[in-house]
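haha ok so turns out i had the wrong file open the whole time. this is the CORRECT one, sorry everyone. sequence first:
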Amino acid sequence: MKSWRLLIILLLSIPMITVAQEKTKERKGEFYFSWGYNKEWYTHSDVKVNQPALNSNYTLRNVVSHDHPGWDEGLFTAPISIPQYNYRLGYFFNKKKGLAFEINFDHTKHIIKDGQLITVSGTLNGRHVDSSMYFSENFGFYYYLNNGANFLLFNLVKRWNWHESANGQLKIDALGKAGIGPLIPHVQNSLFGKANEPGFQIGGWNMGIEAGVRATFFKHVYLEFTNKIDYARYSGLKVYQGTASQAFGTYEMILSLGYTWKGGKKMAE
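then structure:
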């Protein structure tokens, strides 16, 4: 009699075990990684310079800046990190709701345009100044974040499924992203003929929002196109005998090629 009771309990347990396993399978995460390239447009900005040793504290007002894509300098012949590149590393921790966490890095280049008249106001070498000056490398003026303005963001990602083919080999999703993180610029400049010591540094913070479309082929390979708006606030940037600060907005267009794969099983609730 006990044997029959044990058999009945086992038979009743099988469907429950199967359902639990199916739930666990449904709750698998999903990793992804992508590499791509970008194009930027920047807002005008002020550069505030403080050089206590030189008794200088002035502002370069309303400067015009541009990027340096580098696509025409050997995209397929030079190292892949020479043009303005970007990478994404993410994990969908809740596939049902389409939620992911993402490390989002953009190697963007920010250069103050050569040959423009810039208003300089404040104190320069102990004297008051408020005049327009010709900003040109030929006169000892340049200001580059050319080895990277370098936006690093920690993003929360939301995915919406738009279309999936009957055989599952093509999937099109819409993506929305938002995050905040540090800036890691490479700072190189010369102001009034005085050059700094170029180098990378932690130099402030940025926040951004991004939206776009991802097309996934054969369940793993995907192409992603997004538009992004970023606000970056730089501080403590190294200049000769002092520091500079600057804030500007960026509009980006980004194209990336990526690979996605399933992660480990999550615990069932």
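Confidence is low (pLDDT under 50) at residues 1-24.
again sry for the mixup
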